[in-house]
Amino acid sequence: MDIFEEKLDTLLTDTYNSISKFEEKTLRESGINATISEVHLIEVVGKQQQSTISSLARNLGITMASVTIAVNKLSDRGFIIKEKNPGDKRSVHLSLTKQGLRVYRLHRYFHRLMVREVVAGLKSAEKEIIYKTVERLNNFFKKSSSGSEK
């Protein structure tokens, strides 16, 4: 790696760690008893109109068994409501409780603050460069995690 790549690597690593620490701190200070992984699952349920175990597994890229375990824990702790689909007893619809909605809104608020801080004062062209750069990074991770890495 050249000097720029080393500096960028350090910055990306530090940024990832800082985001994780800040999210955890925000959860603790808000009295929310959930892990970051659980909050991300709650976020997907909050974004989807008709969440099911299979749709969560697809969106999160994890197994149905892992989602089922996580959903059961979150349901037991009062974050998620599970309701059998009357038309298909095998399917369970998921929605957020009042407590789950609070976690979802807090997490979305954190993300809004983060994005606004990044783009504050930037010109349109600069915003586009940041967007394309993060999109390339995201595509790299998606390809790498799906096993289609070059």
Commentary on this structure:
This protein is mainly alpha-helical. It has a domain at 34-119: Winged helix-like DNA-binding domain superfamily/Winged helix DNA-binding domain (Arc Repressor Mutant, subunit A). Helices cover 70% and strands 10% of the residues. A two-stranded antiparallel sheet has the order 1-2. Strand 1 (80-85) and strand 2 form a beta hairpin. The model has no long low-confidence stretch (mean pLDDT 90).
Span between N and C termini? 19 Å
By DSSP (H or I, 4+ residues per run), the number of helices equals: 6
Question: Unreliable segments (pLDDT under 50, ≥5 consecutive)?
Answer: none
Structural class: mainly alpha
CATH top level assignment of the domain at 34-119: Mainly Alpha
Radius of gyration: 18 Å
Helix share, percent: over 70%
CATH topology of the domain at 34-119: Arc Repressor Mutant, subunit A
Q: Enumerate the strands of the largest sheet in spatial order, edge to edge or round the barrel.
A: 1-2
According to CATH, the homologous superfamily of the domain at 34-119 is Winged helix-like DNA-binding domain superfamily/Winged helix DNA-binding domain
pLDDT averaged over residues: 90
Largest sheet: 2 strands, antiparallel
Q: What is the element string, with H for helices and E for strands?
A: HHHHEEHH
| Bulk shape | globular
- Beta-strand portion reads 5-15%
